[in-house]
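[Meeting: bench + compute handoff]

Bench side (C.D.) handed over the final construct sequence. Compute side (W.E.) agreed to return the predicted structure before the next meeting so the bench team could plan truncations. Sequence as handed over:
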Amino acid sequence: MNRRHFLHRAAAGLYAASTARAAGAAGSLIASIEKVTLRRGRDGSGPSWFHPRPCVVPGREGPVIIMTMQEIRGSDYFLPVHWMQSRDLGRTWTEPRPVPAFGRDPTPDGRGDEGVCDVVPQYHPQTGTVLALGHNVFYKGTGFDRNQPPRCPVYAVFRDGRWSERRRLAWDDPRGATIYTNNCGQREVLEDGSIAFVMSFGPKPTARSAAGVRCSFDGETLEIRQVGRDIRHAAGRGLLEPSLVRYRGRFYVTLRAEDGRGYVAGSDDGLDFAEKQPWCWDDGTPLDMSTTQQHWLPHSEALHLVYTRQDATNTKVIRWRSPLFMAQVDLQTLRLIRATERVVLPLVGDGVNAAAEVPLMGNFQTTNITPDESWVTDGEMTPKHGYRGDLVLGRIRWSRPNSLL
């Protein structure tokens, strides 16, 4: 064996050993995963709540969990945003109530209504407020308006039990002439109170790019201060629903795409990202994904991704939007460690022979609730049955506390 070949094999062996150790450590982090149904809608007994997204608000008597969601009635057709809260870590909840700022308003031209969707609430510790950021959407009659006017982020602030009015996040840049948005995206609150996220935008409905954004926020007004270098992608509508995480001093973005892949990229500052790469297993095999979002789940000892993909159980399910998986990210390669993959929310039914009956997922959120527990929340939908679905929660309990909280 020549020296070069020996060194190559030795390096491969060290990498395999380190990956195996990481896989073992990540596997031991998860003590259990439990599925909980918070609201029933699949049987028609209640509304079908969609886009359920919680955030944790510290309080003198313990944390309060606020969750925003909205009822789904058709493809991309949602009723006004509601919110509910829990004071006992999700065991009981108040009845959902409308968020006044996120209702429906007639458009000035009389062609339809303007609403809000894809809302993500997040606690802002520097001001003691919750910033709920979504984007506007237009409806015509009882459905989604396929000829959407320009769209942009909108937000409201929750403070002392009250919601502010709706406001628009301004960005006077021709790159976002048709749309600019952080819809459904995760973002980071930095030490100085500024907010970092990644925005998807385009001057036309197709071929959207993405870029890192830095905003100021004073508890009332959100303003864009910096926009980073474009991340480009030519397939389909481009890059959609980006989610950002800061982990161990570095920023990472995961991006929905429409070429059978999801993408990931890293950055030192959250503004300018390295070249994106498709999500792959640790052996280099790309994951088969189908235009569905992914989200991060950080733990002090490992960074995980939650996602959907094709597997043997869901070959006929629309966009393979069930089940929801999670796996640890190898931070050196930005690949998923296959040995750590777990099902967070299982497929219900037969995804091969009766796929039309399978409740779809994929518009979900990941949230660290306590050092010992994290959630993945999702709203099911079954298009064949009037988009009915349950509001479900995957309760992940950690075997070791998460010191990120």
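W.E. noted at the follow-up: Residues 1-25 have pLDDT under 50 and may be disordered. C.D. will use this when planning the next construct.
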